[in-house]
């Protein structure tokens, strides 16, 4: 079976992405208390690990997510940084973070891009390979995020 996770490298920045389904009794407070009407609501936790495998420092500036549910509905999410941070990666350094994606359907996909900037001011776009939001995905390893 192919992995539901992704692992891509663009311009010296490696992006590893994985997601897991959260059962209703494991939801974080912001989702457990939310009123979603009569529609079923599925929440996935995802982990991203960014690693600078290149030879120059880069800082993450922005993100663009493309989220598609199993009914084909697409949502584009753009914003500055990731979870309120703008990680700077020296060559060889990694940064991991966790976030959440609610869906109205039982499965979907996520993919997108990050905008990074080199120390000389040059900006470049790093691909986030498609990964799957599916209930049967293997659980995430939740080791402490590295800085």
Please, could you describe this protein's structure?
With 147 residues, the protein is an all-beta fold. The chain has one domain: Immunoglobulin-like. Helices cover 3% and strands 54% of the residues. The protein has 1 helix and 9 strands, in the order ββαβββββββ. Strands 4, 5, 6, 8 and 9 form a 5-stranded antiparallel beta sheet that branches. The longest helix is centred in the first third of the chain and has 4 residues. The radius of gyration is 16 Å and the shape is elongated. It starts with 5 loop residues before the first strand and ends in a 14-residue tail after the last strand. The relative contact order is 0.29.
Summed up, what is this model?
The chain is mostly beta strands and 147 residues long.
How do the helices and strands line up, and which of them pair or pack?
Layout: E1 6-10, E2 13-22, H1 29-32, E3 42-52, E4 58-69, E5 74-80, E6 88-89, E7 94-103, E8 108-118, E9 123-133
Antiparallel strand pairs: 1-2, 2-3, 3-7, 4-5, 4-6, 4-8, 8-9
């Amino acid at each position: 079976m192919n992995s539901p996770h992704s692992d891509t490298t663009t311009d010296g920045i490696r992006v590893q992405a994985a997601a897991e389904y959260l059962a209703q009794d494991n939801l974080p407070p912001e989702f457990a208390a939310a009123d979603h009407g009569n529609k079923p609501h599925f929440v996935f936790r995802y982990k991203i690990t960014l690693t600078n495998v290149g030879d120059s420092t880069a800082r993450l500036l922005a993100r663009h997510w493309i989220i598609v549910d199993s009914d084909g509905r697409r949502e584009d999410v753009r914003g500055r940084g990731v979870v309120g941070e703008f990680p700077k990666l020296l060559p060889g350094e990694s940064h991991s973070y966790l976030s959440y994606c609610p869906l109205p359907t039982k499965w979907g996909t996520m993919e997108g891009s990050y905008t990074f900037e080199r120390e000389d001011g040059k900006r470049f776009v790093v691909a986030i390979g498609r990964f799957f939001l599916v209930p049967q995905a293997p659980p995430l390893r939740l080791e402490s995020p590295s800085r």
